[in-house]
Write a structure and sequence with these properties.
single chain, 675 residues, alpha/beta, 21 helices, 22 strands
């Protein structure tokens, strides 16, 4: 069964009874069964979940510590026969010191014990009264050869650790352990460790842990939850990893504090899943972490291989870790059920109104500042824009107008040219003329019909043959007009082509493919439409005529208008009928470029995003994915000589920046992978 690079993880918050190990282990064992039924591979419980976190001075009694070890033995039995790593919190005594530990259990075996490093001793927490720090195991006097037999295999590599016998098993105890689970690995830190200036998880990630499990007992205070969530989210982003945060909940003592059972699962800065706090019942929060995505991001981020505080490189620090192979991941049927949201429109801003407004403003500011900087530095007198009445030229014109406003220049210095041809319809022509008038720019109309007629005569082409020559000649004629007018007026041609068109090669080479500065080069089609709509409502809302025209442009079918209109004078050539829906292509582009996914994985994700709600059939998605792969590979030669243009988001196809690819690469293997 293909796992598509996912691993299913969960944070389980049981209802505990303080100092009642029997009741707590029974609750934990019940939740293990529920998680196993959901095909979870890594199950994390809260800090000191076997005893309860709020036992206070009861931790000083050997009886509670011994009973906790017996409780772990019961959990071991519950784990037998299950392809699942279970991480529970319990007090562990070693060399006459007590440690607040995470215990990793798999199939009836204690695989390792991880002690908490940062022990709080402030305000309501006085853990130093009972517990010692895991830093005891990070010095030379406790270093062992790090080797023991577990499940009949010698599976621990040398590192800073000690060995002990716990619950009948010889195992390692150390903060510096990475547990290999299936094709990925995880490490553990406990509660306060995350709040330290440099959390242990930072080093765990550098040593190779893709996922961090945090067993916590964090009480609730006004506004603390937002800060805590942001801390978890940011640490997952900083480590380019997954982060499972599981905090104590109902049943902990409310003598002075309240624990709400906060569980958060993040991946590279995004919250995948979180629990409902203040529940009076046990809860399991599940998410599918994409470890393949994390590996791809790390491999392309050179700064991820950092330097440790003593100046040594991360590879040297890596040698201080023990490696424990726990087993294979569970056989999770990700096709049947996927515990994560697959965003169908990854380029379009998400969030509440304020967040979306802020993101759109930033995108427009990047485009505007890029163009304004270029115009001012080359002492340019004007900007020339070809206006078709379509989305791309509209966004380019709006950005140009805002750039001139930013520079304090008169918009009359912008020259907008509409160039009617064989396929121009009344709707797009009227919108082009009306928009130029509404924005107060200088407008010109130059028909390309006579020039193209003459050109066809010169090269001996039948005007009635509506082939690629017929279409591309029109695009090149328009570009020639723009370039020549720019030369006449001492200006530059502002390009209109967008990122989606560049990915598909949906541009005429040395036609609309070429300009002197491409303001839309980093903006995909789905975002172009969103930005024009936002500008109609937020930037040009004080200009009603412009706003109304913009809304009609948004509603107009996307077309190059290179073929004659139909008998009713309407657009006959609809782009998405020819190359496929742009929302699909933008989805393909984002996942192919950003994470290096295989075509088969992109197909799987697209089916989750678009087929479950009936937007497209699986066959339709598959058809257009093949089109995307073929065009993306075969049209690279157009991207190899792109004009300058600003990078807007994380996906850029500039040959000078993010994307370098041979123009004659083969796509056969990629098509085969789809099938």
């Amino acid at each position: 069964m293909d796992n598509f690079g996912f691993i299913r993880v969960a944070a389980a918050v049981p209802v505990v009874r303080v100092a009642d190990v029997v009741a707590n282990t029974a609750s934990i064992c019940g939740m293990i069964e529920k998680a196993y039924a959901k095909q979870v591979s890594l199950l994390v419980f809260p800090e000191l979940s076997v005893t309860g976190y709020t036992c206070g001075d009861l931790f000083g009694q050997d009886f509670l510590v011994r009973e906790a070890e017996k409780g772990v033995a019961r959990i071991k039995e519950a784990s037998r026969g299950k392809d699942m790593d279970i991480v529970v919190g319990a007090p562990v005594r070693f060399r006459n010191r007590l440690y607040n530990c995470a215990i990793v259990i798999r199939n009836g075996i204690v695989m390792g014990i991880v002690p908490k490093v940062h022990i709080p001793s402030y305000n309501e927490f006085y853990e130093t009264r009972w517990f010692s720090s895991g830093k005891d195991f990070m010095s030379g006097d406790v270093r062992s050869d790090g080797r023991y037999l577990s499940n009949g295999k010698d599976n621990v590599r040398e590192g800073f650790c000690a060995e002990m016998t716990y619950s009948g098993f010889r195992c390692n105890i150390s903060p510096n352990m990475i547990f290999s689970l299936g094709e990925t690995g995880y490490a553990i830190e406990i509660c306060e460790d995350l709040w330290a200036p440099v959390p242990p998880s930072s080093y765990h990630a550098l040593a190779g842990a893709s996922i961090i499990a945090n067993l916590s007992a964090s009480n609730e205070l006004l506004m603390k939850n937002e800060y805590r969530k942001e801390l978890v989210r940011q640490q997952s982003a900083r480590t380019l990893g997954g982060y499972i945060y599981c905090s104590a909940g109902c049943g902990e003592s409310t003598q002075d504090l309240v624990f709400a059972g906060s569980s958060i699962i993040c991946e590279n800065g995004a919250v995948l899943s979180e629990s409902e706090r203040f529940s009076m019942e046990s809860s399991i929060t599940i998410a599918d972490i994409d470890y393949e995505r994390l590996a791809s991001l790390r491999s392309r981020t050179n700064t991820f291989r950092g330097i440790t505080p003593d100046g040594t490189d991360a590879d040297t620090y890596d040698r201080l870790y023990s490696r424990i192979s726990t087993g294979s991941a569970a056989e999770s049927d990700f096709r049947k059920e996927l515990f994560r949201k697959i965003e169908a429109h990854p380029f379009v801003p998400k969030g509440n109104d304020a967040e979306m407004d802020a993101r759109c403003r930033e995108i427009i500011s990047i485009q505007t500042t890029g163009l304004a900087g270029r115009l001012s530095r080359i002492n340019c007198r004007t900007a020339v824009v070809g206006i078709s009445g379509g989305l791309d030229s509209t966004l380019a014109l709006l950005v140009t107008a805002l750039a001139f406003d930013k520079l304090g220049w008169d918009r009359k210095r912008i020259i907008g040219i509409t160039m009617p041809g064989y396929g121009t319809t009344g709707r797009t022509y009227d919108n082009a003329c009306g928009l130029m008038k509404a924005l107060g720019i200088t407008s010109r109309e130059i028909s390309i019909v006579k020039a193209c007629d003459q050109h066809f005569s010169d090269i001996g082409h039948d005007k009635e043959s509506h082939d690629v020559t017929y279409e591309n000649s029109q695009a090149r004629e328009r570009t020639q007009i723009l370039m020549d007018v720019a030369n006449q007026e001492g200006g530059i041609v502002v390009g209109t082509g967008d990122l989606s068109e560049l990915a598909l090669g949906w541009a005429t080479y040395n036609g609309d493919h070429m300009s002197m500065y491409g303001v839309n080069a980093g903006v995909p089609k789905t975002l172009v439409k969103h930005l024009v709509s936002w500008m109609a409502d937020h930037r040009f809302n004080s200009e009603p005529a412009a706003g109304n025209i913009l809304r009609d442009i948004i509603a107009t079918p996307i077309s190059p208008e290179l073929l004659p209109a139909d008998q009713d004078g309407k657009i006959a050539q609809v782009t998405e009928d020819l190359v496929g829906p742009y929302e699909l292509h933008d989805f393909f582009l984002y996942n192919f470029f950003r994470f290096g996914y295989s075509p088969s994985k992109i197909l799987f994700l697209a089916e989750k995003a678009f087929c479950s709600d009936g937007s497209y059939t699986k066959d339709t998605v598959k058809k257009w994915l093949k089109t995307f792969i073929r065009r993306f590979f075969s049209q690279q030669f157009k991207r190899s000589c792109l004009p300058d243009g600003p990078k807007v988001g994380s996906v850029s196809l500039s040959p000078r920046g993010d994307w370098r690819m041979p123009s004659d690469a083969s796509y056969g293997m990629y098509i085969d992978d789809i099938d």
